[in-house]
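pinned: reference chain
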Amino acid sequence: MRRFIPAVLAVAVAASIAVTFDARPNRYGHSDREERHLLPTVSSGPQSPAWSPDGKWLAFTMRGDIWKMPADGGEAVAITSGPAYYFEPAWSPDGSRIAFAYVTAGNLEIGITGAGGGPVETVSSNLRVDVQPAWSRDGKSLFFVSARSGGFRIFRHDLATKVDTAVTNGIQPAVSPDGKLLAYEQGGLRVLDLATGESRLVRDEETEYRMEPSWTPDGTNLLYVTEDEGSNDIRVIAAAGGEPIELTLDTSRHEMSPAVSPDGTRFAFVQYDAGVPALYMAPITGGRASAWRKLSVTKRRSLTPTGRLRLRVVGPDGASVGARIYVDAVDGRHYTPDDLFHRSMMVFDRHYFHMTADAEVEVPAGRTTVEAVRGWQFVPKAITIDVPAGGVQAATIRLERLIDLPARGWYSGDSHVHDLHQGVGLTHDAFFRQLVAEDLNVTHALIHMDGTRLMGRWSDLNGKPHPLSTPRHILQYAQEYRGSLGHIGMIGLREFILPFVGGAGGTAYGQPSLENIYIEGARAQGGLAGFMHPYQAAPRTPQQAASTLIAVDLALGLGDYYDIGALWSDELASADFYYRLLNAGFRVPATGGTDNFSDVFLDPPPGSDRTFAHVTGPLTHTSWLDAVKRGRTFFSTGPLLFLTVEGREPGDEIAVAATAPTQMRVKADVASIAPVETLEILVNGDVVQTVRATDPLKVVFDGQIDVPLGGWVAARTTGPKSTYLGDDYAFAQTSPVYVVRGGRRFVKASDVQFLLDTCDAIWARVEKARWRSDAERMAFKAAIDKAKVHYQQLLGR
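pinned: its structure tokens
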């Protein structure tokens, strides 16, 4: 998917975060990690509570607006309306105004409106986004966070002079009750003396832009969000430093955004359940959930009239089916039912939710467009209806099949999905509903480690399909190894293979690591291990290819599949290297895995990058893995692509005599819910036939192709970006059909030499690393030397 140059995440506030991937441009021009975890999100429920100075009201963001509600719950009154989205309210000290971040002209800025609503005044503007406003205690200025100077920094905006002044590197400013100190997050929890500019560390913790400090009224303590226990929880710590005390601890859910009441007796916060936030109140002493009280929104009063849309999605037989839903309202915004997870695509600004049963959503009255997408073998369908003010409009969307893949033995799978990754948390049931709505037949949810934190549940990996699985939708947990020279997916495991990381600076596993124990260990358990998101740009030199150990692993007989597609690699770039591997005689299946985070707002759904496997007999987890192992696959970001060579399918070998005719009949066809532009036939990495699409949703080739030297034949198709797809562009690639002429396997000397040189480049990359022992260093060198022998033998040396 992503075409960008690998780099270290260069953000001042992220100094304590171990980052494997880069900072790449995204919706607002920031790294993915920042946009997923730092920037504000649209939600179906309330977020970011803020107290009025008199303690009578709570302001919060919900459904894209700023609302206020009595502090003990009740009717929520909107003070903003579309088409902008509004976030992060902050009440002025005199209670007359509310500041917030909002989207205007496609960018995040700071605005102010009256506490009862009214015109919005923009008080800051910069293309690098401005967020997280906090009032000074005299009400004469606003602190806010901006990346206008590079990494995110805290600025002060003088409301009289309209001058912005840089204060310090960091995020999430919170002004002390006396106005003299500023608490904020920057490599932990810090406090800044605004008079002297002196900053001190209060608490050193590994964080993900979530600390959100809130002062107690006496200025002695700070509430903040921690991730130390595996979920987001709220702690209190003395502003002078020391050991924190837990105020909430519910490892099955996430508590965030603490806001201490003006009298200091209690605090409001948000808890997320299956991606849906709800407001709670707890005594300042905290406690278990039994001590909390949910603040119910009993009624909503919007600035514009609203109605309700009651929605059902059915399949060709009229039975209800799950689907991904886009609801585009008359005000230009997107809406989600109150009890479902509001999400947004990464590659385009369109919001969505998943439903597996009838749903009801409140929208502004007027013309509303609803579109349903269910995987790639159903034709997406949109309807436009008028929703009456104060009324309910029912609508049914009927989906028709584009193609019946199971009837042909083809089943979709995603070998690289994450259900938990520092987001708002998902239950198994909520996660599984996403998979059903996307019509994913086999899903591998990979448990991994990010920095020093486990992303997942230890108990989920047991070698069995999850109990929620059905005959058509199988969920099984697996593992991801994250090394400094590539990541390995291990599917079909019964138990973890440790450690989770290698080459991770600041840990006991800082030295480079071979991948043998992971690949061999997966096979020993009856599973498969493969290469995930290999390259973000085509490796044109051995030095560029040396960013992974793939050239070494395959030469050692290791590696069961190769993900051409993922959100974190570019399909054409990864395919370029894949063709070199095939030309060196490696028979590795073409696969794909999304690598999405299913519990964060800004991410595409599971199954955005899929492996389709041709299964013999009934679908089971074992039969699907077996089909992948045999190479009976194609990878796709959307198009459905089928290939035969002389009637044989991908993964098969065709043996012909040296004197046999060189022409072979090749049939390939594409059916797609998203437009495609070309269908290409490849022989040994070269495009030998191109068919330009006249019908963008269906392309066919049936003809003779010359294969004079033997080798391999495959097909691929490409197309532009589409709102139906979660990846950057339409792409599909089949595994090869192999042709052996005269009993000799085809190899291309120049590609073999490239891989041989890549082995040397890998050693040059790691030779001077900090090794724990000379023995481990030499073991790594021995593996490289053994791989080189393989390539030298292919070259006849």
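why pinned: DSSP finds nine helices and 56 strands in the chain. Confidence is low (pLDDT under 50) at residues 2-25.
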